[in-house]
Structure formats: structure tokens, C-alpha cells
Amino acid sequence: MAFSNYKDIGSVLKEFQITYTEANFMGEVEFNISDYFREDLQTVMQDGVPSASEFSICENLIYPILKEVWKCYRSNFVLWGHRALTYDENLSGFPEYILARRSPLGKVVFDKPYFLLVEAKQDKFSEGWAQCLAEMVAAQRLNDELQITIFGIVSNGKDWEFSKLEKTSFIQNKNRYFIQDLDRLFAAVNYVFKECESQLNQLVVA
């Protein structure tokens, strides 16, 4: 079944026998946002129509933030947009964005996924989380026995929610982050990248 067919997070939890908890686990790692980025985003939000469509939200609000942070981690990771993610016939589809380990074979080779972002289409965060959790399960299984923590983000461009999947435990962060508070949002996104990098480094050492 395609990820987009999952509409209720409870059914995903039950199907894959995952426990659900809420906690404020998110850290914040300060990120230096350039003046150019601030001014460009402000121009888009003030004079453009960034929420005109689902594609517009991704291109104008979500991707620029992810890309800005990813540039600091690009030696270890590739940020994929709308790329197929398939574990089996029940776990397949096209997440909006995937952060995956950079393959030693080259940047065009898709490697192990570490976090996924799903757009909350029409502001339906509950459906977004059902889809995101299914994607996180697929990512976890694609990492085989490595037992890494998979991170998930659901966003409508303005509001950002975070979660993580540790083995069979899904933890949703209680607090949201908002594009109006850009420094805290970037610090949260940077925290997720930093955690992914830390896990990757531990695997390399091991």
C-alpha cells in the first residue's frame, strides 16, 4: 500500500506494533542564518503567494530551509526531493524529502535514509503523520539491523512538527516550531541534522 493511503496514525501504530508517546525530546543547535536568506524569505512571504499550491509550499517554504541546513552536512548526506522510497508493496511511495547517507558510489546512488519530511496537505497534520510514520517504518527497515533512530517532520510550510522512531517506539515532540520564529526553527532542523550525523559517525567508528 502506498504511503499516501495511510490516513490514520492509530492504524499505522497497530499494523506495525509501534507504541506512541509524546515528549519534548527536541534539542536546538544554533544555526547562523544569512541576511540574504532572511531577506529572500521575507520577500517571498510578503510579496509572493508561497501557499498557492502544495508544490509552491514545498518549493518556497520547506525546501529552502532544509537546503540551507543541508549545505553544512553535504559531505555526509544527500537531500532527496520527491524520490521513490520502497521497502515492499505495503511500504512504498514518494516522500516530499528524504535525508539519506551519501553513497560511496556517488551522489546519484540512493543510500540509507535517516529522516523524512511530509507536507501536511491542506493543513491535515493527522493524515500527514500517518503517512510520515509509515515512511519512517520503511526507512527503519531499509537500514536493516543497524537500529538507528529515524526522524520525521510534518510541515505545512509555516508550522513544523517533529518526531522520532526508536525501534518500536514512536515519540512525537509536544512543541511545534514556526516559520515566524525562524531562529528557533532553524535550530530545531539543525538539531535533527546533527543527530543524524552523530549516528552516522558512530556507525563509521563501529
Keywords:
206 residues, two-stranded antiparallel ribbon, 23% strand, eight-stranded mixed β-sheet, globular, tt1808, chain A, 10 strands, 5 helices, alpha+beta
Question: What does this molecule look like?
Answer:
The chain has about 210 residues and is an alpha+beta fold. It has a single domain (about 5-205), classed as tt1808, chain A. It has helices at about 10-15, 35-45, 55-70, 125-140, 180-205, and strands at about 20, 75-80, 85-90, 90-95, 95-100, 115-120, 150-155, 160-165, 170, 175-180. Strands 1, 2, 5, 6, 7, 8, 9 and 10 form an 8-stranded mixed β-sheet that branches. A two-stranded antiparallel ribbon has the order 3-4. Helix 1 (about 10-15) packs parallel to helix 4 and helix 3 (about 55-70) crosses helix 5 (about 180-205). It is globular and about 45 Å long. The termini are far apart.
Structure described in brief:
The chain is α+β, with helices and mostly antiparallel strands.
Question: Helices and strands in order, then pairings?
Answer:
Elements: H1 9-16, E1 19-22, H2 35-47, H3 54-70, E2 77-81, E3 85-88, E4 91-93, E5 97-101, E6 113-119, H4 125-142, E7 150-155, E8 159-166, E9 169-172, E10 177-178, H5 182-205
Parallel strand pairs: 1-9, 6-7
Antiparallel strand pairs: 2-5, 3-4, 5-6, 7-8, 8-9, 8-10
Helix pairs in contact: 1-4, 3-5
